[in-house]
Design brief:
The structure is a homodimer of 330-residue chains.
Chain A: H1 15-24, E1 40-42, E2 49-58, H2 69-86, E3 90-101, H3 106-123, E4 126-135, E5 140-149, E6 165-169, H4 174-182, H5 192-198, E7 214-218, H6 222-232, E8 236-240, H7 248-252, H8 258-263, E9 269-274, H9 276-284, E10 287-288, E11 295-304, E12 309-313, E13 319-320
Parallel strand pairs in A: 3-4, 8-12
Antiparallel strand pairs in A: 2-5, 3-5, 6-9, 6-11, 7-9, 8-11, 10-11, 12-13
């Protein structure tokens, strides 16, 4: 009579549950309760503060439909890891919601989750929960990340003072150039630039505490984000174009791509201010540790009071101007 | 020379920042750091576990473009609050990401946030952070909620035993009927059903600890969700149709809408199992407290071992069959 309602447990699973078990179960940590409950139950590390960030990515806005599925998930996770890194927090766990177009096959998600599995190992965190729904629009992914930090040691955007140096990790512009390469607008023989666009290197573990007075990650372009950091501190900032670190692949693109490097976004490097008393040590040995290995750090300018906004000085000492500051999300 | 880069701080704000400050700043709690940082910094209540859930809502899937913006935000928040309520957790804070179509005006978000402001007061929590981006598709909202619970007291889906009663808060089916009313498929003279579709009543504060052996909230239809609860416990469940609580507005729709009530979803009531030794007290006084006031609770069936899946018995004692179990998200 009621066969419809009394199928055995294993075959009774709605498509959503099968989808979650099939792809996401392997990512779930102890807090996730097998991804079968209404919520995760998580015991925070005793005596720590939590650092929590959320970021969304939309197909054709933040990634390309032709991007390998392995890197799409990793890119989103890494953008969020970069937010934790900017505050000096240790990754703990993450939640994911996805609005899925029916046209996207299961095989896409299998690869998407394989990529995330690799990054969970590299950055020592696990999936806590999430939600899956359908959409008639593009794929939308939203990720919330939790990290922990010793109370009082989170590095915030506010804290820089006049005279502090402005420092940056890694190289600037590779991600923005990588997007242009993938769009066919420039040649990227080694594939290094496209790799950096698809797979940013979050600076998790960067020991900012006791060195940096303020920090943020660069996601929307160096100039725009340096402007945010200055504004949050009621200061201006002066950048020296010749000191901005570029990879050899970026240099090979030529001077006409310099503006793209400084304003294109997708760097996920850490921008931080360092009080003068801590700069000597860094200048002597401009390398810092991260969980993924050492990263070079470079002094690219300083904070000032006289002039608000961002001033970029060229090799000749003259101010440079740019058509755009950076990426706007609206 | 570099006017483009040196505008004063207040006019220098990118559109995304203006949007966030204008609408969301009033919702931000202390952890949000004025919504100007990379992440929130949150000190969890000492000695508590955190309960964390994430849910996404998509225009035309979970809400209608004609729904009042005030209720769209509140509905999403309340769906997440319902997840906390099912586990017996106290709300602490939430994060929101939104993928915004350019066609949606600022006035829509002003109303959206006004609704959320009301609910923050009712349910005692505040915004911690989030992200705003654009999309060429429908509006996608993703909300992560954090709650706290005494360690060991979170009520999970697993824990029900053979012979436990199945109980439910409030009334079943009003939300599902409300959607049909808004689609013009039935008459809802009082507007009660549409109200319940647009604004679920999460049972935050329901004192499940020490009473319930397992619990979940009903979002995808009573029958489907009762099936999930039974399956998670390796059991079957028998429901008595005549005991399922219906509002007078639902009863007025007539018997032909009964299946919609049981399978349509959007209830956001709590489904919980109660061991026999705790049932007498509840049967004597079938009302439980929530932060929004007392709510009736009703025994609608029991868990069994003989028969897996869900069995619904009609008034005549015969098994009932239904075309669908409930809502599937994929």
């Amino acid at each position: 009579m009621s066969g419809l309602l009394r199928t055995p447990p294993q075959t009774d699973l709605p498509a959503e549950f099968v989808f979650i078990k099939q792809h996401f179960a392997k990512l779930a940590g102890p807090a996730a309760l097998d991804l079968s409950d209404d919520a995760a139950v998580y015991t925070p590390p005793p005596g720590k503060d939590l650092v929590i960030a959320a970021d969304a990515m939309v197909e054709n806005v933040h990634f390309l439909p032709t991007d390998p599925p392995e890197t799409v998930g990793r890119k989103l996770l890494r953008c969020n890891l970069s937010d934790l890194a900017a505050m000096g927090a240790k990754p703990e766990g993450w939640l994911l919601t996805l609005a899925r177009p029916k046209t996207l096959p299961d095989t896409w998600f299998a690869q998407f989750c394989n990529g995330l599995e690799q990054d969970q190992k590299i950055f020592s965190l696990s999936l806590m929960g999430g939600d899956t729904t359908s959409t008639k629009g593009p794929l939308v992914l939203s990720l919330t990340i939790l990290g922990s930090v010793i109370p009082g040691q989170a590095i915030k955007r506010r804290g820089a003072r006049e005279g502090d140096g402005l420092w940056v990790t890694g190289m600037i512009g590779d991600g923005a150039l990588g997007l242009q390469a993938l769009l066919g607008k420039l040649t990227d023989a080694s594939g290094h630039l496209a790799d950096r666009y698809r797979l940013p290197q979050p600076r998790v573990g960067l020991p900012l505490s006791g060195i940096a007075s303020a920090a943020m990650d660069i996601s929307d372009g160096l100039i725009q984000d340096a402007g945010h950091l200055a504004r949050e501190n009621g200061l201006g900032v002066v950048l020296h174009a010749s000191q901005i670190p570029l990879s050899s692949a970026a240099k090979a693109c030529g001077d006409k791509w310099f503006e793209t490097c400084l304003t294109g976004g997708d760097d996920y490097e850490i921008l931080f201010s360092v009080p003068p008393e801590h700069e000597a040590t860094l200048l002597q040995n401009p390398v810092m540790a991260t969980v993924a290995g050492p990263v070079p750090v470079t002094r690219i300018g300083h904070f000032c009071k006289q002039q608000l906004g961002v001033t970029v000085l060229g090799r000749d000492g003259a101010e440079m101007t740019f058509a755009h500051h950076g990426w706007s999300h609206l």
